[in-house]
Amino acid sequence: MTRMSIRKVKQKNHYFNMQKVKTKYDIGDKVWLIYENKAAERVITQVQIIVNAQKTKVTYQLNHEITDYDECKLYTSKGELLKSL
After folding, report:
1. How far is 41 from 36, CA to CA, in rounded Å?
2. Which CATH class, in words, describes the domain spanning 3-84?
3. CB 3.0-4.6 Å disulfide test: which of 42, 53, 70, 73 passes with 62?
């Protein structure tokens, strides 16, 4: 699990509010997803965390592909993926 610790920091008379973001997966983890109507195993190669005033969004890049996947579409095992269908 990736943990990004964010805290209030002062930089050149500006304060930044910081928060903690915990992800379900980390770089190098193997995950399962539905790809072209089949169960497929991939490796996480990038974790992207977007934080704005409304929400925090975590997406993952798999096998260096261009497409980003939402956390809710990834599973830790093939069995977990099949149970979700």
Report:
1. 12
2. mainly beta
3. 42
